[in-house]
Every structure is written in structure tokens, then in C-alpha cells.
Design brief:
The chain is built from eleven helices and 25 strands. It is α+β, with helices and mostly antiparallel strands and 435 residues long. It has a single domain, classed as 3-Layer(bba) Sandwich (FAD/NAD(P)-binding domain), CATH 3.50.50.60. The radius of gyration is 22 Å and the shape is globular.
């Protein structure tokens, strides 16, 4: 039975909803107040994008605001690594010549905030460095390596269970199978969250609905478009995150010392061929991957695909099936498996081992593909991660402090008002939309 009233109602039991609930309850207890925090989710813990997330944790961002926010999030991951099933193995960003200046700038700015990393430049130097990690490294066209010594990956479902358990220990109540149908809004204030199991009167709402944020946004009566530097643009667009799992023993993918290697993200402009010797692409391409026992193989992905909802027939029904039900296409399968083999000899002839199980998720992106963390009504705080989400576990801690009246400087660059001001984040030469 859901309560008829709660001080705080959080919509969504994914990474942001659970992290916010946990840190809010901790802050309230530290201030001598019993937490009255309720989390509702139409399905259950991690049933949406968080439950199928690749789980990579990195600070490889060209944007200073993202880099500082991610350094904070890595601190949160490291503070309770065991409970969050977090593996601090590091992260490798490998780039081709067109990306070299940008990668160098990221390295310099990481140094400025005390985030440890190593920069290697020059194709021969990069090849030697990578062969010092992997005995079978062989990819061409890599002229810069940024090796973040922190970061790595977490097992998504295990980390969500850990968050939920920690939140429950602090008194947070999580209610699965509760569908939000609307809000009782009067004079710009939400008086109650209206669900299919009754209304919940509340003082504060937190929207942490992942790819369903657009639908909750509509239920709040917020606009479909927004002015961005003088142009009127859709508030939300969708991309299909293309990911997969190569069904080999994840324990077999180690570095030259038999350890779990860093997460690898390679971008190169070298022509890519499949195992039959046919050209896959002559354009720059990129993939990311890591061994993952949670997925049961080598898991990763490549460039996401923009979705035209009308043409693709994937309009996001807020109560429809989880986005993990969508399959990445044959083009992805060919590129990703060929990319793995281009990087490592050990993956020669392994394309047939790509899992046929659905993987990846549909991501809901903002107009500039960067997050929005802001109050949109007097008592509604929105966490819209624009698919940067799972790694940004620290946003919940910052949001909790803001809800208790302490504005957080790390969240300032992600306010909704930046669009109308034209105060947008810089973009890099990476082809990925979140860069």
C-alpha cells in the first residue's frame, strides 16, 4: 500500500532516483530529521536504462563542467566500491590525429583539477604504450592515448541493488509497480503525485525517469520546445544506444599481467575491414568495450543511432516495454566485431559469437545533448541526464543538498536557463553525441 502523503516523492528507481533518495535520507538523518522519502517506479528497481547500462565510469570529457562533475561522481563510486560493484580499472581514450589537440586539452584540464592521467602522443609511441598493456594490440591510426588511472566500470544491476539496500537502511521506501498518471498542480506547485494506486500528497517531487523524462515533462504541463540561442528546438530527442556482448569468457580478456584491463574506447580513421576482408568503413569509426561477468562476455558499443520516432515506430510510451527490448542492427554488429578484431588479434573470427540478446537502450537527449539538473516548478526538481547517466552517480548527492536549501556550484552549468542565454557547453571532435 502506497502512502497517502510523503515529504519527498522521487519518480524513478534507476541510478539517479536511488542515489538521490539515499543521499537525501542520509542528509536528513544527519540533521536530526527522520527521512520521509518515497521512490515510485512503474516497473521496478533498474527496470529501465540503468538496468541495461554499459556501466562505464569515465572522466573523458572535453567540457570543463562535465569533467568536474565526473570527478565528483568518481569519488562517490570509490567511496563504497564493494557495495556498488565498482571496478576501478581505469579508462583508455584512444584517438586519431583529428582528435589529438582535443585529447591533449582534456589531459591538461584533468591535471588542473588533480585527476590523474597519462598522455601519450605519436602513432609509434601509442602503439608501444598499448602493447605494454595488451600483448596482441594492433589497431592502426591511433596517434594519442589518454589513460585515466581512475574510473573503470560497475556491474549495473548489482550496483542498483546495492544502492537500493543502502537507501532502505536509511529509511527510504521504494514502491515498484506504481504508475504516475499525472500531478495535482496549483499555482506552479505540485500538491500531489497522481498514480494508478492513489494520490500521494507531497512537499517536493524529484523526476529521475531516464528516457521517460519527456513523458513526465508532459504530465507536468511543460513546453515541448525551448528557445536555444534564438532558435526554437525540441526539448527532447531520442537516440538508440547500440551495444552488444561478445560471448567469450570475460576472464580471458586480461592485460599482459593477467589483470582486468582498463575500459577501452578507440576512435581511429584507419579503414576498417571485416573478417572476410571486405571494407566496413573508410570513415573514422569508434567503439568501446570491456570484460564484464555481469553481461557474460566482452560488452560494449559504438556510435548511437538517431531515431525518427514516426519513421522508426518507436514512440516512447511511458508505460511501454523497457528500452532494452530494442535490438541494434546488422551494421552495428559488423562494425563492432570488426573493430574488436582490428584492435586485438584474440578476437579474429569471433563475429559469430556476438550475442543475439537485446542490448542497449533508447536515450532521451536534451537540445545540446548535455544534462539538465534544475527546478522546473516551485517544488519539482528534474534530473535529465541526456544519456550520460549511469556514471554520474554523484548527481544524487548534489541534488539532495540542493533540495535541502544548499545550491550546488557543480550543477550550475546544467540549468535550463542556459539554452535561452546561449551559454552552451563546448563540443569536441568526437562523433559521439554526448561529446
Amino acid at each position: 500500500m502506497i502512502p497517502s502523503a510523503a515529504r519527498y516523492v522521487i519518480v524513478g528507481a534507476g541510478i539517479h532516483g536511488l542515489s538521490t533518495a539515499l543521499h537525501l535520507a542520509r542528509e536528513l538523518r544527519a540533521r536530526g530529521t527522520d527521512p520521509d522519502v518515497v521512490v515510485v517506479d512503474k516497473t521496478g528497481i533498474g527496470a529501465g536504462a540503468s538496468g541495461v547500462a554499459c556501466g562505464v565510469v569515465r572522466n573523458n570529457y572535453f567540457q570543463p563542467a562535465m569533467r568536474r562533475l565526473m570527478a565528483h561522481s568518481v569519488d562517490v563510486w570509490e567511496a563504497d566500491a564493494a557495495a556498488l560493484s565498482y571496478h576501478s580499472v581505469g579508462y583508455l581514450q584512444l584517438g586519431h590525429e583529428a582528435m589529438r589537440d582535443g585529447v591533449r586539452q582534456i589531459y591538461q584540464q584533468q591535471r588542473a583539477i588533480g585527476y590523474e592521467s597519462t598522455l601519450v602522443e605519436g602513432e609509434a609511441e601509442c602503439r608501444a604504450y598499448l602493447r605494454g598493456i595488451f600483448t596482441d594490440w594492433r589497431a592502426d591510426g591511433v596517434t594519442c592515448v589518454l589513460h585515466e588511472k581512475r574510473g573503470g566500470f560497475a556491474n549495473n544491476t548489482a550496483s542498483l541493488r546495492g544502492l537500493a539496500a543502502a537507501a532502505g537502511a536509511e529509511g527510504v521506501r521504494v514502491f515498484p509497480g506504481v504508475r504516475v498518471n499525472g500531478f495535482d498542480v496549483r499555482s506552479g506547485v505540485v500538491r500531489a503525485v497522481l498514480t494508478d494506486r492513489g494520490a500521494i500528497r507531497c512537499d517536493q517531487v524529484v523526476v529521475a525517469a531516464g528516457p521517460w523524462v519527456r513523458d513526465v515533462w508532459r504530465l507536468l504541463g511543460l513546453p515541448e520546445t525551448i528557445p536555444v540561442a534564438g532558435a526554437e528546438l525540441p526539448m527532447w530527442t531520442y537516440w538508440l544506444v547500440q551495444e552488444g556482448t561478445l560471448k567469450v569468457d570475460p576472464g580471458s580478456f586480461t592485460d599482459r599481467h593477467g589483470r582486468v584491463p582498463p575500459v577501452v574506447h578507440v576512435d581511429t580513421d584507419a579503414p576498417l575491414y571485416d573478417e572476410a576482408g571486405d571494407l566496413v568503413t573508410g570513415e573514422p569509426w569508434g567503439i568501446y568495450y570491456k570484460p564484464d561477468h555481469n553481461f557474460g562476455g566482452i560488452q560494449g558499443g559504438s556510435m548511437p543511432r538517431r531515431i525518427d520516432e514516426r519513421a522508426d515506430g518507436v514512440a516512447v510510451d511511458p508505460y511501454g516495454p523497457p528500452r532494452s527490448r530494442y535490438r541494434s542492427g546488422a551494421d552495428f554488429a559488423r562494425l563492432w566485431t570488426a573493430g574488436l578484431a582490428a584492435c586485438h588479434e584474440r578476437f579474429d573470427g569471433c563475429s559469430r559469437l556476438l550475442s543475439g540478446e537485446p542490448s542497449g537502450a533508447i536515450g532521451c537527449f536534451t537540445p545540446d545533448s548535455f544534462p539538465v539538473f534544475d527546478s522546473v516548478l516551485d517544488n519539482v526538481f528534474v534530473i535529465a541526464d541526456s544519456n550520460h547517466g549511469y556514471k554520474m552517480i554523484g548527481v544524487g548527492a548534489l541534488a539532495a543538498r540542493e533540495l535541502l536549501g544548499e545550491p550546488q556550484e557543480l550543477l550550475e552549468p546544467f540549468r535550463l536557463s542556459r539554452y535561452e542565454r546561449g551559454d552552451l557547453h563546448p563540443t569536441s571532435s568526437s562523433p559521439f553525441p554526448w561529446s
